[in-house]
Design a protein that fits this description.
The chain is of the alpha/beta class and 187 residues long. It folds into 2 domains: 108 residues, Rhodanese-like domain (Oxidized Rhodanese, domain 1, 3-Layer(aba) Sandwich); 60 residues, no CATH class. It has 9 helices and 5 strands; from the N terminus they run E-H-E-H-E-H-E-H-E-H-H-H-H-H. It has a 5-stranded parallel β-sheet with strand order 1-5-4-2-3. It is elongated and about 65 Å long.
Length: 187
């Protein structure tokens, strides 16, 4: 069995660990839409923006590893930090997230219908608003240039911090909250 104290685990090592019959928890902190499109078999969905560490730990068996996965690792790392801050030493980050799991050729559960990927939605919204703001600045009032400027600042902040406020807002939209039947198979 892999050492839980290492705090990270590769998808291949996790696959072996999940198959050895030991008690564990596998937590997916992505959005419901991302989870529905493809997820690691046995992963329980709990989006990062809905994670209440104290509530989760109240039902957690101490000593049982909690493997945390997201799309590429950023959100899972934030969740692990929250667990760590709450005094939980049982959290293990899945390196590279679901992307690395899929790239390793490991099995995933895929939904039949999923929304457009969240970051693509962000790109469409930001691009549309920036174009509209630019056109309005040219033809209506120069002060509309503030819109693309603010969007650029938001993208800069998102890139530097790894946190995207627009992605969090879009994740709460009804089309991103629907989970199809397959996505509930492991929850």
């Amino acid at each position: 069995m892999n050492e839980v104290s290492s705090r990270t685990i590769s998808p291949l090592a996790l696959s072996t660990t999940l198959g050895d019959g030991a008690t564990h928890e596998l937590l997916d902190v992505r959005t419901p839409g991302e989870y529905a499109s493809a997820h690691v078999p046995g992963a329980k969905l709990l989006p990062l923006n809905e994670l209440k560490v104290e509530d989760y730990l109240a039902a957690h068996k101490p000593g049982c590893p909690i493997y945390v996965v997201c799309q590429a690792g950023m959100r899972a790392a934030k969740a692990v930090e929250q667990f760590k801050a709450a005094g939980c030493n049982d959290c293990v980050l899945v390196e590279g997230g679901t992307e690395a799991w899929i790239n390793a050729g490991l099995p995933v559960h895929r939904g039949t219908k999923s929304p457009m990927p969240l970051m693509r939605q962000v790109q469409i919204v930001v691009g549309s608003l920036a174009a509209i703001g630019s056109v309005l600045a040219l033809y209506v009032n120069i002060w509309f240039v503030a819109l693309p400027f603010l969007l650029g600042c938001g993208l800069l902040f998102s890139g530097v911090t790894g946190t995207c406020g627009m992605a969090f807002m879009l994740a709460k939209m009804p089309w991103n909250r629907q989970i199809d039947r397959c996505s509930q198979c492991c929850a």
